[in-house]
Amino acid sequence: MTKYRFHHDPLHRRLLEQAGRMNGPDCHLERLVAADRRLDAFSAMGGGVFYDFSRQRVDESVMDLLFELTEAADVGRQFAAMAAGEKVNVTENRAALHMAARSFSSSPAMVDGRDAKAELQDVLEQIRPFSKAVHQGEITGSTGQAFSHVVVVGIGGSYLGTEFVACALEAFADKNLSLDFLANVDIHNFSSVWSRIVPEKTLWVVISKSYTTVETMANEDLIRRHMQAVGLNPAWHMVTVTSKGSPGDQGTGQELAAFHMFDFIGGRYSVTSAVGGVPLSLYLGYERFERFLKGAEEMDRHALEAPPKDNLPLIAALIGVWNASFLGYPQTAIVPYAFPLRKLAAHIQQLNMESNGKSVDAAGNKLDEPAGTMIFGEPGTNAQHSFFQLAHQGKAFPIDFIGVLNPQTQLDEGRFKGVGHQQELWANLLAQSTALAMGKPSDDPARSFSGNRPSSTIVVEDLEPESVGRLLAFYEAKTIFEAFVWGINPFDQFGVELGKVTAGKLRTEMAARNRDEAHDFSEVDPINRRYLQMLFNGRLD
Ligand SMILES: O=P(O)(O)OC[C@H]1O[C@](O)(CO)[C@@H](O)[C@@H]1O
């Protein structure tokens, strides 16, 4: 069997031909959505989610070819192999077992002779009593005061997923405990956090799989300095979440607690491991974190078991590849019509772009064109007042609308113009996806709407912890299915290394100047030399 290569598969040419047809006047979305039973035929329900792709620029011929592509790329087998613990991260010779972190079934997940699931369960059993002891004031800071502030110290996957979930479930949070994020090495991030916390009552959760990420290590060092400066022993205000054997694993032996993460879960897939487990159990209570895990598990089971034509994340992935590689849309926006989901796009940005922003396939063959999609987004209705002008009359881009039927709050919504706030929100969500698809001609070109702008609508019944877990797992599976169709490895991220190495060289020059004022940056290229001079002079001239 010849090795699958996305751009060389016969289906690729046939799909390009379909894209040409789809760009013709007979296939304007206004016509596609008018077809009989359009929504029934172009929607799916599963894993506690409703997925409507009736306003995507596809018809049955396109979908049939995309499902054939699923077979050609052997997507189902690869996804099952990943779930079984095979080393699908071929460039790093690692498994990708983020789903094992929320699997409550008894079946093991063996990796190199170890049961990964048992190791993950052990960490959960460590988190549960720890978070309870902090809530009950049995574990306190070094002055005996209960903790009232938790600060996550981490960057990328070591905080983005947690920030998304914490924001989504803020309504359920323990009001006696605030949660902040110290990710950026920019001193303004630290100063902002430091201004809001009470050091004696603060627990710093240092999260770094490698324990070598400079931003996180610099912040950890700064925390220790400032805690010591106010007479506190930082070790009694710090827990670590890191991989076994990392520089942080030994710890100082004094940390309040040390929790493990593992090399078989990548950072951007780690929010259901201790990376999210420690801060979210402190902020929301362990039981709600577990409910979040159960929602994710429900979508995992759907992604693993549903046949392709009923499989929500697989369908979404096929449409993602169709839009990016055949209809030529380089971006996709994620627009949740739900204020609690306002941090979702930032997490999916890393999840999807760090996974699929690749130019070679898993076998090392250069792709004819890079894989991946640029992700951005803001919640609706806000997005209507920022980038929807371009969405309607500028360069078209697909949108994932996300709707929630029942809000978290029972507050009186009033009846402005005869409707409550949630109804007003939905009127806008449906209006936007409709207007983008249908358009509206006008004799005045400035007031003409071309329409034919694709979108999907993803609906959950509520924003309980389970639903947030479902959405998370939906986007993780979608990302991975997309990668398997493109034939790439979604689990490595070598693209982040060059910047780090280059920063290291400049850091060395700066440190030399800090030691010796006569150091003149003569070894630095002229452009960067000018910037170093501006920085050390504090002046533009
Ligand atoms: O958890 P660590 O090792 O500090 O890495 C932080 C982040 O940096 C990256 O390695 C690169 O962005 C991410 O994959 C990861 O989530």
TrEMBL record:
A Gene Ontology term for the protein's cellular component: cytosol
SUPFAM superfamilies: SIS domain
Protein name: Glucose-6-phosphate isomerase
Protein function: Catalyzes the reversible isomerization of glucose-6-phosphate to fructose-6-phosphate.
GO biological process assignments: gluconeogenesis; glucose 6-phosphate metabolic process; glycolytic process
Gene of this entry: pgi
Compartment(s) where it occurs, according to its Swiss-Prot or TrEMBL record: Cytoplasm
First-level EC class: isomerase
Natural source organism: Desulfosarcina widdelii
Gene3D superfamilies, sorted: 1.10.1390.10, Glucose-6-phosphate isomerase like protein, domain 1 (3.40.50.10490)
Keyword line: Cytoplasm, Gluconeogenesis, Glycolysis, Isomerase
